[in-house]
Backbone:
């Protein structure tokens, strides 16, 4: 099967679960003999992807999109000038800026992108279509998320093939946008959804959320859980010498890093947990850097600054080393997420998780049997639940092993690819 897969890049600045999911899916489909052309938009992929970039150009370069949004002149500039702003170095610098990956303040541009050929970035869409017409005709086109739906109709008309769209964490982005753009974006996404043959949600919970948000029928939305590579992740005895709590996600307040630090400070006061450590990784963007500095000062006030590590590197090799060095994983994002890739990354190495009963976390934790859930409305819920595992090593080991087995059987990249292809096959002759 010939597949065009369009995915937004992050520039490799933080742990982007959606990017990693897309990259592993493309890798697996290629290993299985399918021809997949992966096209980055906004920023380069970079994270874990040196083998699949294929020298494909970045379309809708983040700097050009911004300039075209703000200044009408740039909607008519020649390609030689636009190419300068699409340079790899320029885009890497843009990726480090907070505004490049945060929804706040990007309402007008988000709406403009959803307006497709009527939006301010029409020039970028035309360039992508011209380039794609020079490639071999695909059997399907797959958009990585619903924020890209503005290009759906134009792609279908130009390439004359079924079009699919993943659903993965668009809602938090749109909900962070100020009115009136928030409502306008929802309306635009709903309208654009008519141009999509089928949607692929990363969890049943998120499928239900987006069906309601975008007025999608049940038969148009399919669920394919995320998957990861598992062969090299062999089980081993959990390390509790010393016990270590791990955090793997963008190091920001909204994903619960501060709550985890507070729980850690309380747990250190337990007579049996005086040697407790915490390690956090996943990248920082813009204001996250200031936030982490503030957390370090808070730890220093309690004399615990040497008990917590904030690690910069989080590529695949470093993530595996990190996970194998911890006793329990927790990313206490109280609003939940569409899936939580860090859950199955941890469980693949036999490390149990502690997560709030929010979003898709219960769906994933219950499906794997690899962790404990707590009520995020309870003030000490996180602390008490972490304490349960940190003081009961046998229980932690048992949960981790159950989770490892479940990930190998149900959450591999091969299963993810198989289920994705099954969705494609319903709408194609392949």
Residues:
């Amino acid at each position: 099967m010939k597949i065009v897969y369009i995915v937004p890049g992050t520039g490799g600045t933080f742990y982007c679960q959606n990017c990693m999911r897309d990259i592993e899916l493309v890798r697996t489909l290629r290993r299985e003999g399918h021809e997949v052309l992966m096209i980055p938009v906004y920023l380069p992929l970079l994270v874990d992807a040196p083998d699949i970039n294929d020298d494909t150009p970045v379309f809708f370069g983040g700097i050009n999109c911004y300039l075209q949004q703000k200044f009408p002149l740039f909607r008519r500039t020649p390609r030689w000038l636009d190419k300068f702003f699409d340079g790899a170095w320029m885009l890497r610098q843009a990726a480090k800026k907070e505004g490049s990956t945060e929804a706040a303040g990007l309402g007008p541009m988000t709406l403009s992108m959803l307006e497709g050929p009527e939006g301010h970035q029409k020039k970028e869409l035309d360039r992508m279509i011209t380039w794609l017409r020079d490639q071999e005709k695909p059997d399907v086109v797959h958009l990585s998320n619903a924020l890209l739906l503005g290009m759906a109709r134009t792609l279908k008309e130009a390439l004359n093939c079924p079009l699919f769209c993943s659903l993965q964490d668009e809602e938090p982005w749109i909900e962070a946008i100020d009115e009136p753009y928030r409502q306008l974006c929802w309306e635009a996404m709903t309208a654009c959804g008519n141009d999509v043959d089928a949607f692929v949600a990363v969890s049943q919970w998120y499928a239900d959320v987006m069906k309601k948000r975008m007025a999608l029928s049940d038969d148009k939305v399919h669920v394919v859980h995320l998957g990861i590579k598992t062969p090299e992740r062999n089980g081993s005895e959990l390390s509790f010498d010393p016990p270590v709590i791990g955090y793997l996600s963008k190091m920001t307040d909204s994903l619960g890093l501060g709550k985890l630090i507070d729980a850690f400070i309380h747990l250190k006061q337990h007579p049996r947990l005086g040697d407790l450590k915490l390690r956090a990784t996943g990248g920082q963007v813009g204001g996250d850097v200031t936030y982490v500095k503030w957390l370090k000062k808070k730890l220093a006030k309690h004399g615990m600054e040497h008990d917590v590590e904030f690690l910069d590197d989080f590529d695949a090799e470093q993530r595996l080393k990190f996970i194998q060095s911890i006793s329990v994983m927790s990313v206490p994002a109280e609003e939940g997420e569409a899936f939580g890739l860090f859950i199955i990354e941890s469980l693949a190495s036999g490390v149990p998780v502690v997560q709030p009963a929010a979003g898709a976390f219960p769906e994933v934790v219950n499906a794997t049997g690899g962790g404990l859930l707590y009520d995020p409305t309870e003030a000490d819920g996180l602390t008490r639940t972490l304490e349960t595992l940190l003081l009961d090593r046998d229980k932690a080991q048992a949960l981790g092993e159950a989770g490892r087995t479940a990930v190998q059987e149900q959450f591999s990249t091969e299963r993810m690819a198989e289920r994705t292809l099954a969705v494609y096959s319903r709408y194609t002759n392949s």
The two ends are 7 Å apart (CA to CA).
